[in-house]
Amino acid sequence: MVRCPECAAEIDVDEDEVEEGEILSCPECEVELEVVQTHPVHLNVISEEEEEEEQDQEKKEVLGEEKEEIE
Q1: What is the CATH topology of the domain spanning 2-70?
Q2: What is the phi-psi region of residue 59: left when phi exceeds 0, alpha when psi lies from -120 to 50, beta otherwise?
Q3: What's the predicted TM-score (pTM) here?
Q4: Are 43 and 49 in contact (CB under 8 A)?
Q5: For position 17, what pLDDT does the model report?
Q6: Which residue among 10, 33, 40, 66 has the highest number of C-beta atoms inside a 10 angstrom radius?
Q7: How far is the C-alpha of 37 from the C-alpha of 44, rounded, in Å?
Q8: What does the pLDDT read at residue 64?
Q9: DSSP secondary structure string, the chain?
Q10: Long-range contacts of 29-32 (CB under 8 A, 24+ apart)
Q11: Whole-number mean pLDDT of the chain?
C-alpha cells in the first residue's frame, strides 16, 4: 500500500507486479503517477509539463525520421 503524493489517498500497489516507469492513476484525484522505484514502491506525480515535453520529443523524433527518409 502506498500513498498518492498529490492527495495522500491509499493506492493498492503490489511491488512484485509493477515495474519502474509504469504509469498509474490515483483513484481519488485521478492524477497520473509514475513508478520510480519498486522495492519499496515510490510514485512521482507526472506533471502536465513533463507530458508535453515527452510529446514534443516524440514529435521531433518522428519528424526527424521522416526527414531522413525524404533525403
Answers
A1: Rubrerythrin, domain 2 (2.20.28)
A2: alpha
A3: 0.64
A4: no
A5: 92
A6: 33
A7: 9
A8: 72
A9: -EE-TTT--EE---TTT--TT-EEE-TTT--EEEEEEETTEEEEE--HHHHHHHHHHHHHHHHHHHHHHH-
A10: 29/4, 31/4, 31/6, 31/7
A11: 84
Q: Rounded to a whole number, what is the distance in angstroms from the first to the last CA of the chain?
A: 53
C-alpha torsion angle, residues 15, 17, 19, 24 (rounded to 10): -90
Q: Name the grid cell of 24.
A: 498509474
Which residues face 24 on adjacent strands?
33
Collect all residues with Cβ–Cβ distance below 8 Å to 11 and sequence separation of at least 6.
1, 2, 3, 4, 24, 26, 27, 33, 43
- Spatial neighbors of 26 by CB under 8 A, at least 6 apart, are 4, 6, 7, 9, 11, 33
Q: What are residue 42's DSSP bridge partners? A: 37
